[in-house]
Amino acid sequence: MDISETPRLGVVVPPENPTAEPEFHRLVGDRMNVYGARFPVTPGMALRDMLETYNAVLPETLARFGGMRLDAAVVACSASHYLLSPEGDRRFCAELSGRTGFPVLSSTQAILAACEALGLTRLTLVSPYEPWLTDTSRRFWEEAGLTVVRAVVVPAGDEGRFNPYEVTTEAILRRVRERIPADGSALLFTGTGMYTLAALDELAHETGRVLLTSNLASAWWALRTTSAAPADPQGEHPLLRRLSRGAPASAA
């Protein structure tokens, strides 16, 4: 396909996030052109205040794409949308879509869409967040009607230090292998800034569970919303292809 005719995806990310755009590029390949816009820097601001600021300035941040035609946009910041209720998040995305004239979805709503499509009701949450934000995310999913079987927390480096951008593949694998329950629940790796693809590549060979991440679900949604998903799943990234095969019966 001519590059000028390739569907265009806008991705809004926090300023320090090093992960979202590279993961989107790997997941969608040459089926979409990915363009980034970054939330403003908020020096000295506490985490919760920063996340609330992101929600407040999101319409303005999306407007920075100017007159460029986009086919869809993803808000690649799960944490800020956990501060909203699932219904409030849905309404916010609908409002943004109406303003921009193209579909806009948060990574949290993309995960809910994937769960609905796959018939998932039980999740094990793998979280790089500090405790209050992990608890907030758990409440979000439970309010959406999902059962969170367990939250597996993955600190960055030393125990008790939390930074999604510094979580290593080795830390993810160690925590998941040690702590996931044996009930077959889907694994949801939350946060667009925690690099997960390498860990998922390994876990895909070890488990029959559904593996979901904020970026994986968002790419899955974007490809289908813009009709950019290949007719033959063999043409998709292996993790998307695995997701498209559907949920094992034990995960529902």
From TrEMBL:
This is Arylmalonate decarboxylase. It comes from the Bacteria. InterPro entries: Iso_Racemase_Enz_sf (IPR053714), MaiA/AMDase (IPR026286). The lineage of its organism: Bacteria, Bacillati, Actinomycetota, Actinomycetes, Kitasatosporales. It comes from Streptomyces vulcanius. Residues 229-252 are annotated as: Disordered. Pfam families: Amdase (PF17645).
